[in-house]
Amino acid sequence: MRRLCVHTITTKPLSLEDCLVQFPQRGVSGITIWRQALEGRNLGTVARQVRDAGLEVVSLCRGGFFPATTPAGRQTAIDDNLKAIEQAHAIGAPLIVLVCGAVPGQSLVESRKQIAEGIAAVLPAAEQAGVKLAIEPLHPMYADDRSAVNTMRQAHEICDALGSPIAVGIAVDVYHVWWDPELKAQIDLAGQTGRLHAFHICDWKTPTTDFLNDRGLMGEGCINIKQISDWVDATGFTGHREVEIFSNKWWSVDQNEFLDQIASTYARLYS
Question: Is the pTM of this model over 0.90?
Answer without folding.
Answer: yes
